[in-house]
Amino acid sequence: MKFHANRREFIQGFGAGLAGLALAPRHAFGAAPPPAPPVAVAKCMEYGPQVRPTLARLFDQIGGLSRIVRGKTVAVKMNMTGRPSTLVQGMPIGMTHWVHPEVIGNTVYLLGQAGARRIILVESSLSPSHSLQQFMSDAGWNPRDFASAATRVDFVDTNYGGPGGTYKRLWVPGGGLLFRAYDLNPVYTDIDVYVSLAKLKEHATAGVTLSMKNTFGITPCTMYGDGAGIDKPSEVVKGSRGGTLHDGKRQPSKTALAENDPNSPRVPGYRVPRVTADLVHARPIHLAIIDGIHTVAGGEGPWIKRCRPVHAGVLVAGTNPVTTDAVATALMGFNPMAEHGTAPFEKCDSTLKLAEGLGIGTRDLDHIEVIGTPISKARIDFRRA
């Protein structure tokens, strides 16, 4: 296992933070903030032929894909949480808690049409095979459907290091809420554009799981998982991140940095939102896409007993993850300005509030332009669905 990080990279990151403060716009010191990037919402009742034109319209409404991806290497982080054999009421997994393959394939196609030079589909799977394609095949999907959607499409299971077992350190601006830095597969540091392709879901620990919480899954379980090696990352995945990132019962492998404060609360509702905000701060999301056509309510997957299918019939896209997730939260029938103790954040801190506090974006709907279908016309009450 190799690791690339040095003092120069740390100093450069620290210096960039100071420069950003010196060059901060006037709104950072009390003047009116600039307009938030718009969020596009569209009704799309079923998977099938209507998905591609609906996505294309959403992307046009937020300014077009070409300006973001032309000539660039683009990573698309898909939400494929859990194991493909674990289903909600026996339903196809893309109809419940995974992003549907129709949404993945059409996103890849449209990125390719917009001029992306290379597209990398990424997820940190729970498969010991090291192969994201195998993980997809285990779910009954055909990876060739995605590979043929654009000129150059690659697949990377980011639970493992890059060539030669290499990981790279991603520093969190400002020192981080829980960790100063996270060690990740190099794909997350070497790409030009990062796309979070998420599912519209509640989350038992974090309240909601949307484009930001999807990024929680970029941390390798071989290093931050329950069965991670003590001194170095494990060779295969041996469990999820519950003991390390959720509960704080152990630290990551010693090749990674330990958390900032070993005396911080050992409470998942405190830790998971902060890890998520850290990661979104360190690895900015350039494009957030949320699949809410068919999804689940009550939790993020079938391991949550109250998790159940729900038909929301909506797609969402935006270029800022906080504004996009705020709109998506409202579409689920919740108030994105809700505090800890209020639905959907009854047992946790709000990732939206934490990310807003870091200056990533606003969660205030009064300052977010919604293009396309109004929230009032697409909202569904997830607690009653």
Structure commentary:
With 385 residues, the protein is α/β, with parallel strands linked by helices. The protein has one domain. Helix content is 29%, strand content 19%. The chain is built from 14 helices and 13 strands. Helix 4 (101-113) links the parallel strand 3 (73-78) and strand 4. The longest helix is centred in the N-terminal third of the chain and has 16 residues, at 7-22. Mean pLDDT is 92; it is low at 5-30.
Describe the structure using short key phrases.
13 strands, globular, three-stranded mixed β-sheet, alpha/beta, 385 residues
Q: What is shown here, in short?
A:
The chain is of the alpha/beta class. It is built from 14 helices and 13 strands.
Mean pLDDT: 92
Order of helices and strands: EHEHHEHEHHEEEHEEEHHHHEEHHEH
Please state the oligomeric state of the protein chains shown: single chain
Shape: globular
The termini sit apart by 47 Å
- Backbone structural class: alpha/beta
Give the strand line-up of the largest sheet.
5-4-3-8-11-12-2-13
Number of strands: 13
Sequence stretches where pLDDT stays below 50 over 5 or more residues:
5-30
Helicity level: 25-40%
Secondary structure elements and pairings:
Elements: E1 2-4, H1 7-22, E2 39-43, H2 51-61, H3 66-69, E3 73-78, H4 101-113, E4 118-123, H5 132-138, H6 143-147, E5 153-157, E6 166-171, E7 181-184, H7 187-190, E8 193-199, E9 201-203, E10 207-209, H8 211-215, H9 221-224, H10 242-246, H11 268-282, E11 287-297, E12 308-318, H12 321-331, H13 351-357, E13 370-372, H14 375-378
Parallel strand pairs: 1-6, 2-13, 3-4, 3-8, 4-5, 8-11
Antiparallel strand pairs: 2-12, 6-7, 9-10, 11-12
Helix pairs in contact: 2-4, 11-13
